[in-house]
């Protein structure tokens, strides 16, 4: 009785023919769907999963990259650089143009080229931002639906709070009242907490509470202070939009198809739409490349662009939606003059400083010792415990801090933060040297970011070839205010380590910032900063009827029927936070907006 059933189930899940994530276009049953989603990334998979909850709606996802399945570096938290770094098979390999504000350095502009997009390769930090960030989005778009109170239920819907991999007592490290427990994305505290270092960080909040108060949970909407970081990790493994939203149960839905290795080039066959005078144009399909051939996928209801903050504006521009003069210069016929496409990019500049420490409890004890490294890997492999359960990147704690209210910098530029309970700075506390290089001594680092930047960048086309890499200008530190402010952020790092408890533990810093003049410190910032990979705003929301912006508050592209953008591109200004949580809630609300439009 039981044996045949078990066999049938095995065959069902194991059978290649039943997998609906298609490697080969020859197996794709159709090129006509209700919805075509371009990009199976952080946002795209959320929308695919939510829309296909309705069995009467058919969805195709076109993803340029390969599957996340079986990619160990995308699964083991400590190894994520192996999937994120330029030159990996899972990277778009983009480089920025020289950044004049950052000593003309060009930076790798990392973007995930893999199912799950950046959620399959990011640094895991789970930070929602300040309530004031979202209330500013509501004000900037004229839509209360983007306010903190209205968005908050979407944070809970997205999240599954999980025990840390070491099952330690987490009391006093977070506030359970503000977390979701049933959502697709696992969130947890450190599973290998580096107690010696953590004790110094927490002790400093007691010794210098005026400048660095302890904050039980930075995800409450009031992030200011120092607290334990939370991560999109569950049971020692990465939780991404691919693992969380495209579960086997979702993938088996007969109304959902995902095609890999399919890179969209542009929207095709613009025709006159009959929807409303405000939306005069509509597109009949999405052109994409699979192998060396071009295909067109058709959407009878909507095309949804979720190709991320580089891919989405590039596809819009390739399709003739953008600044008419710039399109003309490349010989691309303008379908709709929408000058904001690719503009108003907003990104966080990061800098930092390291100290040698009188201890061997640092990442170097693992990364610089092959025996220990192999032991740690084997432990993860055996039981999903040990140091490999945590990210190699962001650190143990984060602090969200402000310039003093009477800072002379506000004479140079008015306060760019969304309000007095939102940060100007992030500080990350890391048990390792800031630069990943071979070094046998032990270090800790304090990383400072300017998280309410004034500078803006852009994505523009380099050629009329839709597959050519676009021109990426982060505008990093292009506004003087950001560089001067980031220098103040580094001073806060020095102040943090002046607390008495660090004596005897901290050795010399790798660079003596305390001895620098203000001009030297600003020069140091310009020479030693890099991007946070938190780009937003390249297809930004603005109020309905505004003469700038790319999408309306319901995420529909202005002037076009049947086309939405749902990904980090629509966020009009970067929040004081790492950007996956905001992307997840934009996608969750975006899916609801689509459902409401077609119910
Ligand atoms: C290295 C790195 C580390 C980060 N660390 C953190 C962190 O610790 N915490 C945090 O909160 N945030 C972090 N972020 C930022 C965060 O991950 C992103 O803001 C967010 O995931 C963006 O989601 P998205 O849906 O807009 O785009 P993506 O997730 O990039 O999705 C876009 C998808 O579209 C696909 N695509 C693009 N162009 C095309 C095309 N033409 N045709 C078909 N498919 C296409 C891509 O391959 C990708 O799968 C990090 C980002 C990076 C790059
Ligand atoms: C990035 O470079 C690596 C190494 O050459 C390659 O495997 C990968 O396919 C490249 N990514 C893209 C999107 O071309
Ligand atoms: C950056 O490059 C520009 C153009 O080549 C040059 O004018 C400028 O002096 C350079 N700046 C620095 C700091 O090197
Ligand atoms: C950028 O956004 C601001 C609103 O924040 C708007 O005033 C401006 O016109 C936008 N610029 C472009 C080029 O879209
Ligand atoms: C760390 O230092 C202690 C005491 O000096 C020593 O016993 C231990 O072997 C060291 N561990 C590592 C991993 O270097
Ligand atoms: C390297 O790691 C091994 C195993 O943990 C440990 O015994 C050894 O002391 C370490 N070596 C150094 C130089 O710390
Ligand atoms: C992980 O475990 C498998 C067997 O379960 C083994 O084949 C593999 O070598 C292990 N890898 C590591 C890094 O320990």
What can you tell me about this protein's structure?
The protein has 15 helices and 26 strands. The chain is α/β, with parallel strands linked by helices. The strands form 7 sheets. Strands 1, 2, 3, 11, 12, 13, 14, 25 and 26 form a 9-stranded mixed beta sheet that branches. Strands 8, 17, 18, 19, 20, 23 and 24 form a 7-stranded antiparallel beta sheet that branches. The chain has a two-stranded antiparallel sheet with strand order 4-5. Helix 5 packs across helix 15 and helix 13 crosses helix 14. One 2-acetamido-2-deoxy-beta-D-glucopyranose binds next to loops. The site of one 2-acetamido-2-deoxy-beta-D-glucopyranose (NAG) has 5 residues, from loops. This is Alcohol oxidase.
Protein topology:
Elements: H1 2-14, E1 21-22, E2 32-38, H2 42-51, E3 59-62, H3 81-84, E4 94-95, E5 108-109, H4 131-141, H5 148-158, E6 159-161, E7 185-187, H6 195-207, E8 225-228, E9 233-234, E10 237-238, H7 241-245, H8 248-251, E11 256-259, E12 262-276, E13 279-290, E14 293-305, H9 308-318, E15 321-322, H10 324-329, E16 336-337, E17 349-357, H11 364-367, H12 370-383, E18 397-401, E19 425-430, E20 443-450, E21 458-460, E22 471-473, H13 480-496, E23 506-509, H14 518-527, E24 530-531, E25 560-561, E26 563-565, H15 580-598
Parallel strand pairs: 1-11, 2-3, 2-14, 3-11, 6-7, 13-25, 14-26, 15-16
Antiparallel strand pairs: 4-5, 8-18, 9-10, 12-13, 13-14, 17-20, 17-23, 17-24, 18-19, 19-20, 21-22
Helix pairs in contact: 2-15, 5-15, 13-14
Bound molecules: flavin-adenine dinucleotide and 2-acetamido-2-deoxy-beta-D-glucopyranose (6 copies).
């Amino acid at each position: 009785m039981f044996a045949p059933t078990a066999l049938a189930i095995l065959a069902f899940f194991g059978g290649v023919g039943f997998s609906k994530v298609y490697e080969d276009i020859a197996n794709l049953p159709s090129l006509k769907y209700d919805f075509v989603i371009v990009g199976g990334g952080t946002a795209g998979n959320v929308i695919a999963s939510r829309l296909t909850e309705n069995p009467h709606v058919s969805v195709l996802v076109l993803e340029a990259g390969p599957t996340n399945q079986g990619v160990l570096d995308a699964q083991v938290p400590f190894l994520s650089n192996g999937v994120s770094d330029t030159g990996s098979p899972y990277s778009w390999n983009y480089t920025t143009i020289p950044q004049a504000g950052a000593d003309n350095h060009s930076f790798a502009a990392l973007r995930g080229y893999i199912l799950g997009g950046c959620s399959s390769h990011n640094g895991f930090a789970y930070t929602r931002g300040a309530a004031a960030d979202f209330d500013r989005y509501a004000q900037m778009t004229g839509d209360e639906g983007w306010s903190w109170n209205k968005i908050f239920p979407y944070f809970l819907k997205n999240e599954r709070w999980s025990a840390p991999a070491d099952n330690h007592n987490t009391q006093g490290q977070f506030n359970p009242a503000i977390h979701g427990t049933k959502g697709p994305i696992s969130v947890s505290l450190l599973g290998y907490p580096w107690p010696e270092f953590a004790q110094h960080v927490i002790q400093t909040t007691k010794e210098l509470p005026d400048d660095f108060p302890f904050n039980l949970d930075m995800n409450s909407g009031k992030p200011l202070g120092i607290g334990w970081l939370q991560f999109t990790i569950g049971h020692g493994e990465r939780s991404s939009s691919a693992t969380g939203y495209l579960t086997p149960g979702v993938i088996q839905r007969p109304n959902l198809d995902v095609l890999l290795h399919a890179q969209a080039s542009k929207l095709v066959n613009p025709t006159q739409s009959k929807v409303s005078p405000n939306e005069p144009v509509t597109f009949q399909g999405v052109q994409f490349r699979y192998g060396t051939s071009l295909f067109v996928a058709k959407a009878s209801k909507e095309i949804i662009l979720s190709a991320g903050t580089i891919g989405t504006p590039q596809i819009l521009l390739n399709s003739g939606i953008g600044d008419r003069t710039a399109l003309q210069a490349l010989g691309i016929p303008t379908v709709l003059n929408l000058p904001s496409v690719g503009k108003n990019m907003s990104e966080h500049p990061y800098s930092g400083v390291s100290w040698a420490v009188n201890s061997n409890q640092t990442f170097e004890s693992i990364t610089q010792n092959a025996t220990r490294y192999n032991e740690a890997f084997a432990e993860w492999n055996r039981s999903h415990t040990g140091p490999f359960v945590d990210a190699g990147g962001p650190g143990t704690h984060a602090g969200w801090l402000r310039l003093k209210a009477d800072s002379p910098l506000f004479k140079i530029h008015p306060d760019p933060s969304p309000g007095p309970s939102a940060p100007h700075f992030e500080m990350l506390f890391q048990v390792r040297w800031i630069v990943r290089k071979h070094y046998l001594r032990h270090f800790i680092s304090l990383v400072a970011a300017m998280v309410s930047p004034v500078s803006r960048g852009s994505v523009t086309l380099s050629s009329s070839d839709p597959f050519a890499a676009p021109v990426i200008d982060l505008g990093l530190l292009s506004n003087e205010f950001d560089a001067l402010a980031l220098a103040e952020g580094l001073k806060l790092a020095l102040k943090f380590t002046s607390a008495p408890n660090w004596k005897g533990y901290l050795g010399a810093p790798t660079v003596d910032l305390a001895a620098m003049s203000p001009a030297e410190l600003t020069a140091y910032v310009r020479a030693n900063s890099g991007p946070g990979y938190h780009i937003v705003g390249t297809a930004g929301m603005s109020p309905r009827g505004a003469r700038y912006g790319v999408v309306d508050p319901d995420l529909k592209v202005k002037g076009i029927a049947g086309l939405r953008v749902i990904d980090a591109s629509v966020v009009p200004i970067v929040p004081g936070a790492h950007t996956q949580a905001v992307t997840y809630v934009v996608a969750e609300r975006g899916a609801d907006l689509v459902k409401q439009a077609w119910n």
